[in-house]
Amino acid sequence: MLALWLFLLPIAECLLTSLTAQKHQPLSQWPKWHVNTNVIKANIQVFTMSNEIDFDQLLSKYKSDPYDYIDVCAVHTGRVQFKLVNGDEVHAPSGEWKQVPGTPLYEINRERNPKLVNAQTNGTVMDIMTELDGQFVEAGEKLMTIRHPLKKKEIIEAILKDVLYLFPAPETAKYFFAMDIQSRIDKKGARSVTIDKGDEIITMSLMKRDTPVYYNGEGGVIHSVYFKPGVSVPQGEPLIGICAPEKLPLIQKIITRVKADWDAE
Questions:
Q1: Residue 181 parent element (H or E)
Q2: I want to staple 146 with a disulfide (CB 3.0 to 4.6 A). Which of 27, 123, 173, 218 is the partner?
């Protein structure tokens, strides 16, 4: 132990002497291990880049492939029988109250209880798992994909989801805004409501129990609302999109740019 102290003591003395000698020197003359300016510059550059948006890249992405690809999965376990083939067009529910069902996609039979599953969106069927026709499948197993053509409004929403901070549903449940938040929305609209980390913003209704949900993301304005009160939202799907107040002009620029580009075609 004594030998170790004798070995470390000269090193400590040298280090102390070096620090004392440099105490009154300009920052630029300090050794590089005192201030890593490269790391500071890199952090500033990353922050700046994260706040810039390449409009051309975003728009070209949707112009080259203006579709959303929606996977259709088994609603529960059972034996599945397809009602269409690849390339068939399907339609979403229609009517004033959506009382007309969408195009039948498949029938799934569990314990002699058949259930017909209909399309919830319009588009073209592709990638049907034909090898599963007549076979027993597990809940959540992918059965086919629907290629849904995006409208201008849907493209704007998709782009906004790339640039807003999205607050996801913690569980598959029904959601409502907290009473205070809902009151402020009713008076001035969602985009006039600012929230911060730790605020109680939403009530989650699950198994006949209401649980407050606290916001844990970036502070800002509620720009987009992706849920309807009392309608079940799958876990992980966005509930709201938050925008920092200083970024609101940038968001409006995105919307204006998309509308102008699509209207020009």
A1: helix 179-188
A2: 123
pLDDT digits (tens, 9 = 90+) for 165-182: 899 999 999 999 999 999
Query: One-letter amino acid identity for 265?
Result: E
User: What 8-state DSSP symbol labels residue 94?
Assistant: B
Q: Whole-angstrom Cα distance, residue 68 to residue 231?
A: 22
- Residue with token string 């690849």: 86
Distance CA(115)–CA(136), nearest Å, equals 14
Question: Tokens standing for 255?
Answer: 């919307």
> Looking up tokens 């209207």, which residue turns up?
263
CB 203 within 8 A of CB 176: yes
The CATH number of 67-149 is 2.40.50.100
The token pair that represents 227 in the structure block: 């849920």
Domain covering 152-263 in this structure, CATH number: 2.40.50.100
